[in-house]
Amino acid sequence: MARRxxxxxxxxxxxxxxxxxxxxRLPGLPEIQRGDDLAAHIANAARKAGQQFExxxxxxVAQKIVSKAEGALVQLTNVSxxxxxxxxxxxxxxxxxxxxxILQESRRIVRTDPVLIAETHHGYVCANAxxxxxxxxxxxxxTILPRDPDRSAKNLAAALLKRARxxxxxxxxxxxxxxxxxxxxxxxIGASGLPVLLDLRGTRDRHGKPLTxxxxxVADELAAAAGLxxxxxxxxxxxxxxxxxxxxxxxxxxxxxxxxxxxxxx
Amino acid sequence: MARRxxxxxxxxxxxxxxxxxxxxRLPGLPEIQRGDDLAAHIANAARKAGQQFExxxxxxVAQKIVSKAEGALVQLTNVSxxxxxxxxxxxxxxxxxxxxxILQESRRIVRTDPVLIAETHHGYVCANAxxxxxxxxxxxxxTILPRDPDRSAKNLAAALLKRARxxxxxxxxxxxxxxxxxxxxxxxIGASGLPVLLDLRGTRDRHGKPLTxxxxxVADELAAAAGLxxxxxxxxxxxxxxxxxxxxxxxxxxxxxxxxxxxxxx
Lengths: 266, 266
Description:
With 266 residues, the first copy, chain A, is of the alpha+beta class. Chain A has helices spanning 38-48, 63-70, 83-92, 96-104, 149-164, 218-230; strands spanning 21-25, 58-62, 73-75, 106-111, 117-120, 125-127, 141-143, 169-176, 185-192, 198-199, 215-216, 238-242. Chain A has a 5-stranded mixed beta sheet. A 3-stranded antiparallel beta sheet of chain A has the order 4-5-6, with helices on one face. In chain A, strands 3-7 form a two-stranded antiparallel sheet. The longest helix of chain A is centred in the middle third of the chain and has 16 residues, at 149-164. The first copy, chain A, starts with 20 loop residues before the first strand and ends in a 24-residue tail after the last strand. At the A-B interface, β1, β9, β11 and α6 of A face β1, β9, β11 and α6 of B.
Protein backbone atom coordinates (compact mmCIF):
# COMPACT_ATOMS: atom_id res chain seq x y z
CA MET A 1 0.00 0.00 0.00
CA ALA A 2 1.27 3.43 -0.95
CA ARG A 3 2.85 5.26 1.94
CA ARG A 4 3.27 8.59 0.16
CA UNK A 5 1.51 10.48 -2.59
CA UNK A 6 2.06 8.86 -5.94
CA UNK A 7 1.54 9.96 -9.47
CA UNK A 8 -1.69 10.10 -11.37
CA UNK A 9 -1.50 6.97 -13.46
CA UNK A 10 -1.44 3.57 -11.85
CA UNK A 11 -1.01 1.70 -15.10
CA UNK A 12 2.64 0.93 -14.53
CA UNK A 13 2.17 0.11 -10.86
CA UNK A 14 -0.79 -2.20 -11.41
CA UNK A 15 -0.41 -5.65 -9.88
CA UNK A 16 -0.13 -8.53 -12.31
CA UNK A 17 -3.43 -10.23 -13.12
CA UNK A 18 -4.14 -12.41 -10.10
CA UNK A 19 -5.89 -15.76 -10.20
CA UNK A 20 -8.66 -14.05 -8.24
CA UNK A 21 -11.15 -15.65 -5.94
CA UNK A 22 -12.92 -18.93 -6.56
CA UNK A 23 -15.95 -20.37 -4.80
CA UNK A 24 -17.16 -23.93 -5.13
CA ARG A 25 -20.15 -25.81 -3.82
CA LEU A 26 -19.40 -29.06 -2.03
CA PRO A 27 -22.64 -30.82 -2.84
CA GLY A 28 -23.89 -34.23 -1.90
CA LEU A 29 -23.92 -33.99 1.88
CA PRO A 30 -26.43 -36.32 3.49
CA GLU A 31 -29.09 -35.00 5.87
CA ILE A 32 -26.95 -34.27 8.92
CA GLN A 33 -27.86 -36.07 12.16
CA ARG A 34 -26.97 -35.36 15.78
CA GLY A 35 -23.46 -36.62 16.48
CA ASP A 36 -22.41 -36.76 12.83
CA ASP A 37 -18.76 -36.09 12.07
CA LEU A 38 -19.10 -32.96 9.93
CA ALA A 39 -15.42 -32.94 8.97
CA ALA A 40 -15.76 -36.48 7.60
CA HIS A 41 -18.88 -35.56 5.62
CA ILE A 42 -17.24 -32.40 4.25
CA ALA A 43 -14.02 -34.21 3.30
CA ASN A 44 -16.12 -36.83 1.57
CA ALA A 45 -18.13 -34.19 -0.31
CA ALA A 46 -14.91 -32.46 -1.37
CA ARG A 47 -13.50 -35.71 -2.67
CA LYS A 48 -16.66 -36.41 -4.66
CA ALA A 49 -16.54 -32.85 -6.06
CA GLY A 50 -12.98 -33.46 -7.18
CA GLN A 51 -11.56 -30.87 -4.78
CA GLN A 52 -8.28 -31.29 -2.92
CA PHE A 53 -8.06 -29.02 0.10
CA GLU A 54 -5.20 -26.53 0.13
CA UNK A 55 -3.69 -24.49 2.94
CA UNK A 56 -5.54 -21.17 3.38
CA UNK A 57 -8.74 -22.54 1.90
CA UNK A 58 -11.82 -21.18 3.63
CA UNK A 59 -14.94 -23.24 4.29
CA UNK A 60 -18.19 -21.41 4.89
CA VAL A 61 -20.62 -23.74 6.60
CA ALA A 62 -24.31 -22.96 7.08
CA GLN A 63 -25.32 -22.84 10.74
CA LYS A 64 -28.16 -25.24 10.08
CA ILE A 65 -25.98 -28.32 9.58
CA VAL A 66 -23.73 -27.39 12.49
CA SER A 67 -26.79 -27.12 14.73
CA LYS A 68 -28.03 -30.48 13.50
CA ALA A 69 -24.66 -32.19 14.09
CA GLU A 70 -24.47 -30.66 17.58
CA GLY A 71 -28.05 -31.59 18.39
CA ALA A 72 -29.09 -27.94 18.71
CA LEU A 73 -32.69 -28.81 17.94
CA VAL A 74 -35.81 -28.35 20.00
CA GLN A 75 -38.92 -30.51 19.85
CA LEU A 76 -41.84 -28.10 20.11
CA THR A 77 -43.98 -30.86 21.64
CA ASN A 78 -41.74 -30.60 24.73
CA VAL A 79 -42.13 -26.81 25.09
CA SER A 80 -44.55 -25.11 27.48
CA UNK A 81 -45.06 -21.51 26.42
CA UNK A 82 -44.93 -18.84 29.12
CA UNK A 83 -47.64 -16.15 29.36
CA UNK A 84 -45.23 -13.69 27.67
CA UNK A 85 -44.68 -16.11 24.77
CA UNK A 86 -48.43 -16.64 24.49
CA UNK A 87 -49.08 -12.89 24.34
CA UNK A 88 -46.49 -12.31 21.62
CA UNK A 89 -47.67 -15.38 19.70
CA UNK A 90 -51.24 -14.10 19.74
CA UNK A 91 -50.22 -10.70 18.32
CA UNK A 92 -47.97 -12.23 15.68
CA UNK A 93 -50.11 -15.25 14.83
CA UNK A 94 -47.20 -17.54 15.63
CA UNK A 95 -46.94 -20.85 17.40
CA UNK A 96 -46.58 -19.93 21.12
CA UNK A 97 -44.16 -22.82 21.59
CA UNK A 98 -41.93 -21.38 18.85
CA UNK A 99 -42.05 -17.96 20.53
CA UNK A 100 -41.12 -19.59 23.84
CA UNK A 101 -38.02 -21.13 22.25
CA ILE A 102 -37.12 -17.72 20.78
CA LEU A 103 -37.44 -16.09 24.21
CA GLN A 104 -35.26 -18.79 25.76
CA GLU A 105 -32.60 -18.19 23.09
CA SER A 106 -32.60 -14.41 23.74
CA ARG A 107 -30.96 -12.22 26.31
CA ARG A 108 -32.84 -9.14 25.08
CA ILE A 109 -35.88 -8.64 22.91
CA VAL A 110 -35.13 -5.69 20.63
CA ARG A 111 -38.68 -5.45 19.31
CA THR A 112 -41.70 -7.67 18.80
CA ASP A 113 -43.51 -5.91 15.94
CA PRO A 114 -43.75 -6.39 13.03
CA VAL A 115 -41.18 -9.12 13.50
CA LEU A 116 -39.54 -10.55 16.57
CA ILE A 117 -35.98 -9.24 16.70
CA ALA A 118 -33.83 -10.50 19.50
CA GLU A 119 -30.32 -10.32 20.81
CA THR A 120 -29.12 -13.88 21.26
CA HIS A 121 -27.09 -15.04 24.24
CA HIS A 122 -24.02 -14.70 22.01
CA GLY A 123 -24.92 -11.05 21.34
CA TYR A 124 -26.10 -11.37 17.73
CA VAL A 125 -29.15 -9.34 16.81
CA CYS A 126 -31.42 -11.13 14.36
CA ALA A 127 -34.98 -12.18 13.65
CA ASN A 128 -36.36 -14.88 15.94
CA ALA A 129 -33.00 -15.25 17.75
CA UNK A 130 -31.94 -17.56 14.93
CA UNK A 131 -34.63 -20.13 15.72
CA UNK A 132 -35.76 -21.65 12.44
CA UNK A 133 -37.90 -24.46 11.14
CA UNK A 134 -36.87 -24.48 7.49
CA UNK A 135 -34.70 -27.35 6.27
CA UNK A 136 -35.51 -29.35 9.39
CA UNK A 137 -37.31 -32.68 9.02
CA UNK A 138 -40.70 -32.87 10.72
CA UNK A 139 -43.27 -30.20 11.55
CA UNK A 140 -42.51 -29.89 15.23
CA UNK A 141 -38.74 -29.52 15.25
CA UNK A 142 -36.80 -26.27 15.09
CA THR A 143 -33.08 -25.58 15.07
CA ILE A 144 -31.47 -23.12 17.41
CA LEU A 145 -28.08 -21.51 16.84
CA PRO A 146 -25.04 -23.49 18.02
CA ARG A 147 -24.25 -22.66 21.65
CA ASP A 148 -20.79 -21.33 20.74
CA PRO A 149 -20.38 -21.00 16.95
CA ASP A 150 -16.76 -19.85 17.33
CA ARG A 151 -15.98 -23.07 19.14
CA SER A 152 -17.91 -25.02 16.47
CA ALA A 153 -15.72 -23.37 13.82
CA LYS A 154 -12.55 -24.09 15.78
CA ASN A 155 -13.48 -27.73 16.30
CA LEU A 156 -14.29 -28.19 12.63
CA ALA A 157 -11.02 -26.52 11.55
CA ALA A 158 -9.09 -28.79 13.94
CA ALA A 159 -10.85 -31.91 12.65
CA LEU A 160 -10.17 -30.89 9.04
CA LEU A 161 -6.51 -30.23 9.84
CA LYS A 162 -6.25 -33.70 11.33
CA ARG A 163 -8.06 -35.33 8.44
CA ALA A 164 -6.75 -33.39 5.42
CA ARG A 165 -3.47 -32.10 6.89
CA UNK A 166 -4.30 -28.64 5.58
CA UNK A 167 -4.81 -25.41 7.51
CA UNK A 168 -8.37 -24.51 6.54
CA UNK A 169 -10.20 -21.52 7.99
CA UNK A 170 -13.85 -22.03 8.88
CA UNK A 171 -16.77 -19.62 9.00
CA UNK A 172 -20.13 -20.66 10.42
CA UNK A 173 -22.80 -18.56 8.72
CA UNK A 174 -26.45 -17.67 8.95
CA UNK A 175 -28.73 -15.37 6.95
CA UNK A 176 -29.67 -12.22 8.86
CA UNK A 177 -31.83 -9.25 7.94
CA UNK A 178 -30.73 -5.63 8.23
CA UNK A 179 -32.55 -2.57 9.58
CA UNK A 180 -32.47 -0.23 6.58
CA UNK A 181 -32.11 -2.62 3.68
CA UNK A 182 -34.50 -5.33 2.56
CA UNK A 183 -33.49 -8.92 2.16
CA UNK A 184 -31.24 -11.27 4.03
CA UNK A 185 -27.51 -11.63 3.60
CA UNK A 186 -25.34 -14.45 4.80
CA UNK A 187 -23.12 -13.33 7.71
CA UNK A 188 -20.50 -14.90 9.97
CA ILE A 189 -21.59 -16.09 13.43
CA GLY A 190 -18.56 -18.27 14.05
CA ALA A 191 -15.01 -18.13 12.75
CA SER A 192 -11.68 -19.86 13.12
CA GLY A 193 -8.33 -19.18 11.56
CA LEU A 194 -8.91 -15.93 9.70
CA PRO A 195 -9.45 -12.24 10.45
CA VAL A 196 -13.04 -11.26 11.13
CA LEU A 197 -12.42 -7.52 10.91
CA LEU A 198 -9.66 -6.17 8.68
CA ASP A 199 -8.43 -2.92 10.17
CA LEU A 200 -7.04 -0.65 7.46
CA ARG A 201 -6.69 2.35 9.77
CA GLY A 202 -3.14 3.57 9.65
CA THR A 203 -2.80 2.56 6.02
CA ARG A 204 -3.06 5.18 3.32
CA ASP A 205 -5.17 5.56 0.23
CA ARG A 206 -3.70 5.73 -3.26
CA HIS A 207 -3.12 9.45 -2.83
CA GLY A 208 -1.20 8.93 0.38
CA LYS A 209 -3.99 10.21 2.66
CA PRO A 210 -4.61 8.19 5.83
CA LEU A 211 -7.71 6.01 5.68
CA THR A 212 -10.01 6.72 8.58
CA UNK A 213 -12.93 4.63 9.77
CA UNK A 214 -11.95 1.83 7.48
CA UNK A 215 -12.45 -1.48 9.16
CA UNK A 216 -13.74 -4.06 6.71
CA UNK A 217 -15.98 -6.86 7.95
CA VAL A 218 -14.24 -9.46 5.82
CA ALA A 219 -15.74 -12.51 7.54
CA ASP A 220 -19.19 -11.15 6.71
CA GLU A 221 -18.11 -10.47 3.12
CA LEU A 222 -16.79 -14.03 2.82
CA ALA A 223 -20.05 -15.37 4.25
CA ALA A 224 -22.04 -13.19 1.83
CA ALA A 225 -20.00 -14.43 -1.11
CA ALA A 226 -20.69 -18.01 -0.07
CA GLY A 227 -24.37 -17.16 0.34
CA LEU A 228 -24.57 -16.64 -3.41
CA UNK A 229 -23.92 -20.34 -3.95
CA UNK A 230 -25.72 -21.69 -0.90
CA UNK A 231 -29.15 -20.58 -1.97
CA UNK A 232 -31.63 -21.65 0.64
CA UNK A 233 -33.20 -24.87 -0.45
CA UNK A 234 -30.60 -26.33 -2.74
CA UNK A 235 -28.80 -28.41 -0.19
CA UNK A 236 -25.48 -26.57 -0.58
CA UNK A 237 -24.63 -25.70 3.01
CA UNK A 238 -20.85 -25.94 2.52
CA UNK A 239 -18.94 -23.58 0.24
CA UNK A 240 -15.20 -23.70 -0.41
CA UNK A 241 -13.51 -20.33 -0.99
CA UNK A 242 -10.04 -20.35 -2.51
CA UNK A 243 -7.69 -17.51 -3.37
CA UNK A 244 -8.56 -15.06 -0.60
CA UNK A 245 -5.32 -13.84 0.92
CA UNK A 246 -5.34 -13.42 4.67
CA UNK A 247 -3.09 -13.68 7.67
CA UNK A 248 -4.04 -16.55 9.97
CA UNK A 249 -5.81 -15.18 13.03
CA UNK A 250 -7.48 -16.44 16.16
CA UNK A 251 -10.06 -13.66 16.08
CA UNK A 252 -13.57 -14.75 17.07
CA UNK A 253 -16.69 -13.92 15.09
CA UNK A 254 -18.23 -12.44 18.23
CA UNK A 255 -15.66 -9.66 17.85
CA UNK A 256 -17.96 -8.31 15.14
CA UNK A 257 -20.72 -7.60 17.65
CA UNK A 258 -20.97 -3.85 18.12
CA UNK A 259 -20.35 -3.08 21.82
CA UNK A 260 -23.41 -1.75 23.65
CA UNK A 261 -21.77 1.67 24.02
CA UNK A 262 -21.35 1.90 20.23
CA UNK A 263 -24.73 0.40 19.40
CA UNK A 264 -26.50 3.13 17.49
CA UNK A 265 -29.93 1.97 18.56
CA UNK A 266 -29.86 1.47 22.29
CA MET B 1 -36.01 -26.85 -6.15
CA ALA B 2 -37.91 -29.65 -4.49
CA ARG B 3 -41.66 -29.21 -4.67
CA ARG B 4 -42.54 -32.11 -2.37
CA UNK B 5 -40.95 -33.92 0.53
CA UNK B 6 -37.99 -35.95 -0.55
CA UNK B 7 -35.98 -38.64 1.06
CA UNK B 8 -33.25 -38.27 3.61
CA UNK B 9 -30.16 -38.62 1.49
CA UNK B 10 -29.35 -36.10 -1.19
CA UNK B 11 -26.26 -37.92 -2.37
CA UNK B 12 -27.90 -39.23 -5.51
CA UNK B 13 -29.72 -35.99 -6.27
CA UNK B 14 -26.68 -33.80 -5.77
CA UNK B 15 -25.91 -31.51 -8.69
CA UNK B 16 -22.74 -32.26 -10.61
CA UNK B 17 -19.71 -30.28 -9.44
CA UNK B 18 -20.26 -26.82 -10.90
CA UNK B 19 -17.49 -24.55 -12.09
CA UNK B 20 -18.53 -22.31 -9.22
CA UNK B 21 -18.07 -18.60 -8.92
CA UNK B 22 -14.97 -16.71 -9.99
CA UNK B 23 -13.97 -13.16 -9.17
CA UNK B 24 -11.18 -11.24 -10.85
CA ARG B 25 -9.62 -7.85 -10.32
CA LEU B 26 -9.38 -5.67 -13.40
CA PRO B 27 -6.33 -3.69 -12.33
CA GLY B 28 -4.49 -0.93 -14.05
CA LEU B 29 -7.18 1.71 -14.34
CA PRO B 30 -5.82 5.24 -14.49
CA GLU B 31 -6.95 7.88 -11.99
CA ILE B 32 -10.45 8.59 -13.31
CA GLN B 33 -11.23 12.17 -14.37
CA ARG B 34 -14.51 13.97 -14.92
CA GLY B 35 -15.92 13.05 -18.31
CA ASP B 36 -13.84 9.89 -18.68
CA ASP B 37 -15.38 7.01 -20.61
CA LEU B 38 -15.52 4.38 -17.85
CA ALA B 39 -16.58 1.61 -20.26
CA ALA B 40 -13.51 2.28 -22.39
CA HIS B 41 -11.20 2.23 -19.35
CA ILE B 42 -12.79 -0.97 -18.05
CA ALA B 43 -12.64 -2.71 -21.43
CA ASN B 44 -8.99 -1.70 -21.67
CA ALA B 45 -8.26 -3.00 -18.17
CA ALA B 46 -10.01 -6.29 -18.99
CA ARG B 47 -7.95 -6.68 -22.14
CA LYS B 48 -4.73 -6.05 -20.23
CA ALA B 49 -5.81 -8.58 -17.59
CA GLY B 50 -6.37 -11.15 -20.33
CA GLN B 51 -10.13 -11.28 -19.74
CA GLN B 52 -12.69 -11.60 -22.51
CA PHE B 53 -16.13 -10.49 -21.38
CA GLU B 54 -18.89 -13.10 -21.55
CA UNK B 55 -22.65 -12.77 -21.48
CA UNK B 56 -23.95 -12.78 -17.88
CA UNK B 57 -20.68 -11.49 -16.50
CA UNK B 58 -21.18 -9.08 -13.62
CA UNK B 59 -19.04 -6.02 -13.04
CA UNK B 60 -18.97 -4.51 -9.57
CA VAL B 61 -17.70 -0.95 -9.80
CA ALA B 62 -16.75 1.14 -6.77
CA GLN B 63 -18.86 4.27 -6.45
CA LYS B 64 -15.74 6.38 -6.14
CA ILE B 65 -14.67 6.07 -9.78
CA VAL B 66 -18.25 6.51 -11.01
CA SER B 67 -18.51 9.73 -9.00
CA LYS B 68 -15.19 10.93 -10.40
CA ALA B 69 -16.22 10.17 -14.01
CA GLU B 70 -19.54 11.95 -13.48
CA GLY B 71 -17.91 14.91 -11.79
CA ALA B 72 -19.71 14.21 -8.51
CA LEU B 73 -17.01 16.04 -6.56
CA VAL B 74 -17.24 19.08 -4.36
CA GLN B 75 -14.46 21.60 -3.75
CA LEU B 76 -14.65 22.44 -0.07
CA THR B 77 -13.15 25.88 -0.76
CA ASN B 78 -16.44 26.74 -2.47
CA VAL B 79 -18.62 25.65 0.46
CA SER B 80 -20.10 28.03 3.06
CA UNK B 81 -21.16 26.07 6.12
CA UNK B 82 -24.57 26.83 7.62
CA UNK B 83 -24.96 27.40 11.38
CA UNK B 84 -26.31 23.82 11.69
CA UNK B 85 -23.23 22.45 9.93
CA UNK B 86 -21.00 24.55 12.17
CA UNK B 87 -22.70 23.28 15.31
CA UNK B 88 -22.37 19.63 14.27
CA UNK B 89 -18.78 20.17 13.13
CA UNK B 90 -17.87 21.67 16.49
CA UNK B 91 -19.28 18.68 18.40
CA UNK B 92 -17.66 16.14 16.08
CA UNK B 93 -14.39 17.97 15.49
CA UNK B 94 -15.00 17.86 11.76
CA UNK B 95 -14.47 20.36 8.98
CA UNK B 96 -17.70 22.45 8.94
CA UNK B 97 -17.53 22.62 5.14
CA UNK B 98 -17.51 18.81 4.99
CA UNK B 99 -20.51 18.68 7.33
CA UNK B 100 -22.30 21.20 5.10
CA UNK B 101 -21.80 18.95 2.07
CA ILE B 102 -23.12 15.99 4.08
CA LEU B 103 -26.22 17.97 5.05
CA GLN B 104 -26.79 18.96 1.42
CA GLU B 105 -26.54 15.32 0.37
CA SER B 106 -29.09 14.22 3.00
CA ARG B 107 -32.85 14.26 3.15
CA ARG B 108 -32.86 13.16 6.79
CA ILE B 109 -30.24 13.10 9.50
CA VAL B 110 -30.70 9.82 11.38
CA ARG B 111 -28.28 10.76 14.15
CA THR B 112 -25.28 12.99 14.70
CA ASP B 113 -23.49 11.24 17.56
CA PRO B 114 -21.13 9.47 17.73
CA VAL B 115 -21.09 9.49 13.94
CA LEU B 116 -23.14 11.37 11.42
CA ILE B 117 -25.62 8.94 9.91
CA ALA B 118 -27.83 10.26 7.18
CA GLU B 119 -30.47 9.16 4.74
CA THR B 120 -29.33 10.27 1.31
CA HIS B 121 -31.66 11.76 -1.28
CA HIS B 122 -31.75 8.29 -2.87
CA GLY B 123 -32.92 6.81 0.44
CA TYR B 124 -29.73 5.01 1.47
CA VAL B 125 -28.82 5.23 5.14
CA CYS B 126 -25.08 5.48 5.71
CA ALA B 127 -22.34 7.38 7.48
CA ASN B 128 -21.75 10.92 6.20
CA ALA B 129 -24.34 10.49 3.42
CA UNK B 130 -21.62 8.81 1.36
CA UNK B 131 -19.47 11.96 1.27
CA UNK B 132 -15.84 10.86 1.35
CA UNK B 133 -12.38 12.28 0.97
CA UNK B 134 -10.34 9.08 0.70
CA UNK B 135 -8.91 8.17 -2.69
CA UNK B 136 -9.54 11.69 -3.98
CA UNK B 137 -6.58 13.81 -5.09
CA UNK B 138 -6.08 17.01 -3.11
CA UNK B 139 -6.93 17.93 0.46
CA UNK B 140 -9.99 20.05 -0.27
CA UNK B 141 -11.96 17.80 -2.60
CA UNK B 142 -14.58 15.26 -1.58
CA THR B 143 -16.67 12.86 -3.61
CA ILE B 144 -20.42 12.64 -3.24
CA LEU B 145 -22.50 9.65 -4.34
CA PRO B 146 -23.61 9.61 -7.99
CA ARG B 147 -26.91 11.45 -8.38
CA ASP B 148 -28.65 8.31 -9.69
CA PRO B 149 -26.44 5.22 -9.26
CA ASP B 150 -29.02 2.98 -10.96
CA ARG B 151 -28.81 5.19 -14.04
CA SER B 152 -25.00 5.14 -13.79
CA ALA B 153 -25.13 1.34 -13.77
CA LYS B 154 -27.55 1.26 -16.71
CA ASN B 155 -25.41 3.65 -18.75
CA LEU B 156 -22.28 1.66 -18.06
CA ALA B 157 -23.98 -1.64 -18.98
CA ALA B 158 -25.25 -0.06 -22.22
CA ALA B 159 -21.79 1.28 -23.09
CA LEU B 160 -20.22 -2.11 -22.39
CA LEU B 161 -22.83 -3.87 -24.53
CA LYS B 162 -22.03 -1.51 -27.39
CA ARG B 163 -18.29 -1.91 -26.94
CA ALA B 164 -17.93 -5.61 -26.08
CA ARG B 165 -21.19 -6.92 -27.59
CA UNK B 166 -21.84 -8.82 -24.37
CA UNK B 167 -24.74 -8.47 -21.95
CA UNK B 168 -22.93 -7.54 -18.74
CA UNK B 169 -24.75 -6.72 -15.51
CA UNK B 170 -23.37 -3.81 -13.48
CA UNK B 171 -23.45 -3.09 -9.76
CA UNK B 172 -22.27 0.25 -8.38
CA UNK B 173 -21.05 -0.36 -4.83
CA UNK B 174 -20.00 1.50 -1.74
CA UNK B 175 -18.87 0.39 1.72
CA UNK B 176 -21.51 1.00 4.40
CA UNK B 177 -21.54 0.33 8.13
CA UNK B 178 -24.28 -1.55 9.95
CA UNK B 179 -26.08 -0.84 13.24
CA UNK B 180 -25.38 -4.02 15.21
CA UNK B 181 -22.22 -5.31 13.62
CA UNK B 182 -18.82 -3.66 13.44
CA UNK B 183 -16.99 -3.02 10.22
CA UNK B 184 -18.00 -1.98 6.75
CA UNK B 185 -19.25 -4.24 4.00
CA UNK B 186 -19.49 -3.44 0.33
CA UNK B 187 -23.14 -3.04 -0.74
CA UNK B 188 -25.02 -2.24 -3.93
CA ILE B 189 -26.22 1.34 -4.47
CA GLY B 190 -26.83 0.99 -8.20
CA ALA B 191 -27.68 -1.99 -10.37
CA SER B 192 -28.50 -2.88 -13.93
CA GLY B 193 -29.37 -6.16 -15.56
CA LEU B 194 -29.66 -8.51 -12.60
CA PRO B 195 -32.00 -9.19 -9.67
CA VAL B 196 -31.34 -7.10 -6.58
CA LEU B 197 -33.57 -9.15 -4.29
CA LEU B 198 -34.10 -12.84 -4.94
CA ASP B 199 -37.51 -13.81 -3.63
CA LEU B 200 -37.58 -17.46 -2.62
CA ARG B 201 -41.00 -17.24 -0.99
CA GLY B 202 -43.26 -19.83 -2.51
CA THR B 203 -40.37 -22.21 -3.01
CA ARG B 204 -39.86 -25.10 -0.63
CA ASP B 205 -36.98 -26.29 1.46
CA ARG B 206 -35.36 -29.68 1.03
CA HIS B 207 -38.00 -31.24 3.26
CA GLY B 208 -40.85 -29.79 1.18
CA LYS B 209 -41.81 -27.11 3.70
CA PRO B 210 -42.56 -23.66 2.28
CA LEU B 211 -39.78 -21.12 2.85
CA THR B 212 -41.12 -18.03 4.56
CA UNK B 213 -39.38 -14.68 4.91
CA UNK B 214 -36.69 -15.73 2.53
CA UNK B 215 -35.75 -12.87 0.29
CA UNK B 216 -32.03 -12.84 -0.38
CA UNK B 217 -30.27 -9.54 -1.01
CA VAL B 218 -28.16 -10.99 -3.81
CA ALA B 219 -26.93 -7.65 -5.18
CA ASP B 220 -25.51 -6.87 -1.74
CA GLU B 221 -23.94 -10.33 -1.55
CA LEU B 222 -22.35 -9.83 -4.98
CA ALA B 223 -21.06 -6.42 -3.89
CA ALA B 224 -19.70 -7.93 -0.65
CA ALA B 225 -17.94 -10.68 -2.58
CA ALA B 226 -16.33 -8.08 -4.82
CA GLY B 227 -15.37 -6.06 -1.75
CA LEU B 228 -13.01 -8.86 -0.75
CA UNK B 229 -10.87 -8.09 -3.80
CA UNK B 230 -11.35 -4.33 -3.92
CA UNK B 231 -9.64 -3.64 -0.64
CA UNK B 232 -9.69 0.06 -0.01
CA UNK B 233 -6.38 1.47 -1.11
CA UNK B 234 -5.21 -1.02 -3.68
CA UNK B 235 -6.64 0.68 -6.72
CA UNK B 236 -8.93 -2.24 -7.62
CA UNK B 237 -12.27 -0.49 -8.02
CA UNK B 238 -13.57 -2.87 -10.71
CA UNK B 239 -14.21 -6.54 -10.05
CA UNK B 240 -15.44 -9.05 -12.61
CA UNK B 241 -17.72 -11.81 -11.29
CA UNK B 242 -18.28 -14.83 -13.48
CA UNK B 243 -20.38 -17.93 -12.95
CA UNK B 244 -23.26 -16.47 -10.93
CA UNK B 245 -26.49 -17.71 -12.47
CA UNK B 246 -29.28 -15.17 -12.62
CA UNK B 247 -32.24 -14.17 -14.72
CA UNK B 248 -31.76 -10.79 -16.42
CA UNK B 249 -33.79 -8.16 -14.59
CA UNK B 250 -34.45 -4.46 -14.74
CA UNK B 251 -34.75 -4.22 -10.97
CA UNK B 252 -33.19 -1.09 -9.46
CA UNK B 253 -30.86 -1.11 -6.48
CA UNK B 254 -33.12 1.40 -4.75
CA UNK B 255 -35.63 -1.46 -4.47
CA UNK B 256 -33.44 -2.67 -1.60
CA UNK B 257 -34.28 0.37 0.51
CA UNK B 258 -36.60 -0.69 3.31
CA UNK B 259 -39.84 1.30 2.99
CA UNK B 260 -40.43 3.79 5.81
CA UNK B 261 -43.37 1.72 7.05
CA UNK B 262 -41.11 -1.33 7.42
CA UNK B 263 -38.13 0.57 8.78
CA UNK B 264 -37.54 -0.96 12.17
CA UNK B 265 -35.99 2.21 13.56
CA UNK B 266 -38.29 5.07 12.72
